[in-house]
Amino acid sequence: MNSLNSEAFTLFGQHILWSDMIGNLFGLAALALGWRRSLWTWPVQFLAGLILFGAFFGHLTGSAGKQAVVMVVALYGWWQWQRGKGRGEDGHIAVRFATWTERAAMLGAAAAGTVGVALLFKAYPTLSWDPWPDAYIFVGTVVAMYAQARGMVEFWFAWLLVDLVGVPLNFANGYAFSGFVYVIYGALVLWGMRDWWLRSRNGARPVLEGAPA
Questions:
Q1: Calculated CA dihedral for residues 127, 130, 136, 142, nearest 10 degrees
Q2: Which residues have a Cβ under 8 Å from the Cβ of 47 and sit 6 or more positions away?
Q3: Rounded to an integer, what distance in angstroms lies between the CA atom of residue 75 and that of residue 67?
Q4: What's the rounded mean pLDDT across residues 99-109?
Q5: Contacts of range 89-92, beta carbons closer than 8 Å, 24 or more positions apart
Q6: For 23-45, b where at least 16 C-beta lie within 10 A, e where not — what string?
Q7: Least confident among 13-22, 52-61, 84-93
Q8: Pfam families attached here (predicted)?
Q9: Runs of H (alpha helix) within the chain
Q10: Does residue 94 contact residue 87 with C-beta atoms inside 8 Å?
Q11: Residue 18 and residue 64: Cα distance in Å, rounded?
Q12: Taking Cα atoms as reference points, which of 181, 175, 137, 177 lies closest to residue 159?
């Protein structure tokens, strides 16, 4: 992993690491695969998390921890989509809007989780340079991936909210390529949101809501 943490090139005065670049390109590919409702979104996301874990480990422990959680949630998403594979009319995972109860639960978990993680980061300053925004991104990413695993259109809204903080935080911490990729994420999220929204309105029956495997 040492070679992956070496500098690839300099862009606008920012030093781009190989691990930062490769990990985020895999993350971008995973998001595109999620848009297409491909099961491969999850192993690609796992690989992105593994590479970025190596990029952050040792100097941004909180960010490395986030990637470890991302890998766990990617495994959960793979399991969920395997169970629901073929539920949509086109042979892919069906998508739906979350119920109001699910939305309230995700918002509550995001709020409580952000406060809890931020307080942890503040108690152990070596975990993060920016406790509150880092905690927000950490928890927001987990909530977004959970919603994706459950086939919820709200997954895209959660990613947009993560982007709003992720772009400036990555630039501030010297991860310029991550910042640029988050900008591209924003455009991809808007397209993906439209696609999932339309599919949820086109009669796709609910998926992963108490249905047997």
A1: -30
A2: 26
A3: 13
A4: 96
A5: 89/203, 89/204, 92/36, 92/37, 92/38
A6: bbebbbbbbbbbbebeeebbbbb
A7: 84-93
A8: NMN_transporter (PF04973)
A9: 18-35, 41-56, 61-84, 100-123, 131-149, 154-172, 176-201
A10: yes
A11: 16
A12: 137
The pLDDT of residue 104 is: 97
Q: Is the pLDDT of residue 159 over 50?
A: yes
Q: What is the pTM of this model?
A: 0.79
Q: Read off the DSSP letter of residue 33.
A: H
pLDDT, residue 73, reads: 92
Q: Which of 96-110, 169-183, 196-210 has the highest mean pLDDT?
A: 96-110
Lookup: tokens for 47: 């690989």
Residue 181: name the closest of 34, 51, 4, 23 by CA: 23
**Token pair for 136:** 């927000």
Residues 39, 45, 46, 47, CA torsion sign: positive
207 pLDDT more than 50: no
The β-bridge partners of 7 are 17
Average pLDDT, rounded, for the chain: 80
CA dihedral angle for residue 17, residue 21, residue 23, residue 26, rounded to 10 degrees? -170
24 has a pLDDT exceeding 80: no
Check: CB of residue 94 under 8 Å from CB of residue 204. yes
7-11 and 14-17 strand pairing: antiparallel
Spatial contact of 152 and 126, defined as CB atoms under 8 Å apart: no
